[in-house]
Amino acid sequence: MVPDVRSGCGVNTDLPDLPGAICATVDPELWFSDRQPGWAETERRAKALCRSCPVVAECLAYALKEPLAGIWGGLNEAERHRLAQTPGTTDRAMRARSVAARMKREVRADRVATAGRLRDGGLEVDVIALRLGVTRRSALRYLADAS
Ligand code: SF4
Fold first, then answer.
1. Which residues line ligand 1 (CB under 6 A)?
2. Would you kindly state where each structural domain of the chain is located, as residue ranges?
3. Does the pLDDT at position 10 exceed 70?
């Protein structure tokens, strides 16, 4: 549940319950790099985890209406501000779903490319699945698309 995870950020707000949030299982400091040394790599890692998070759309929708520090829904503060200012729909949930769908497409494309590279490097499908952290069936789907 996110509230426990985000307790270190100093933001006192009524956070939603987001079952399945990836950041509930990883060091929360990752989402609050605050331009410390090495922040770019830290931010990249946090965003990559957000892109795989099952509640990224809900998380981003929430973060678009609250002044929150750190990375939420795969975007940092500046990126969320820009998204909130983007002309078009005023429906924050719709914007969040759209961004989340794009993130998931990027994750899948990345996995397909990685699976293809690993296969070309001579690895078996079970090893590829292990390396990607997915089931054998998913790995086979990625490999089919990588053909
Ligand atoms: S999208 Fe990112 S910040 Fe939001 S709940 Fe998931 S991992 Fe945490």
1. 2, 18, 21-23, 31, 49-50, 53, 55-56, 59, 72-74
2. 2-146
3. no
DSSP state letter for 66? S
The 3-class SS string of 49-75 reads HHHCCCCHHHHHHHHCCCCCCCCECCE
Q: In whole numbers, what is the pLDDT of the chain averaged over residues?
A: 81
pLDDT by residue (tens digit) across 52-90?
888 888 888 888 887 888 899 899 999 998 888 877 656
CA-based R_g, the chain, Å = 17
The two three-digit tokens of residue 32, written as one number:
């609050």
Q: Among 23, 42, 44, which is best to mutate for testing ligand 1, by the most ligand atoms less than 8 A from CB?
A: 23
Alpha carbon of residue 87 to chain centroid: 24
The residue nearest atom 3 of ligand 1, judged by CA position, is 72
The answer to whether residues 137 and 98 touch, using CB atoms and an 8 Å cutoff, is no
Q: Is the dihedral of CA 70, 76, 80, 82 positive or negative?
A: positive
Whole-number Cα distances in Å, 71 to 75, 87, 105? 5, 22, 20
